[in-house]
Hints:
1 helix
Amino acid sequence: MSRCAISRLVLTTIALLMAAGCAELPLDNAPPDPPLLVSDGVLEPGFGVAVDVVCHDPDGDRVTIQFLARAGAVEQPFVWTSFIQSDVAETFYLPLAPGEWVLEAVARDELDETGDPAAITLSVVLD
């Protein structure tokens, strides 16, 4: 199917949904909920600290996560992760040094809606 045919199909579908009262422009998109973060704080040499993340997006969109770790005056930002499925747990390994850290995470969906951040406090220790 050509791009032009796909575009016509998408526009026709949107027009039908709008005519039936099922959609409005711009299409509604809710931001993702704050991510749920879980970690035991154990630093695995060669890997980092495992952080399990689950994030719910009300629209079922895939989400990307950005972490920010703080220890006193030290801030360690991380790049956005690859997209993960809504409501599916994923494990990320973060290279954190031993010590007390506040780990923040924020989720952004595929349509660039960013939700509120979540945070946990980690006592990072060597394995």
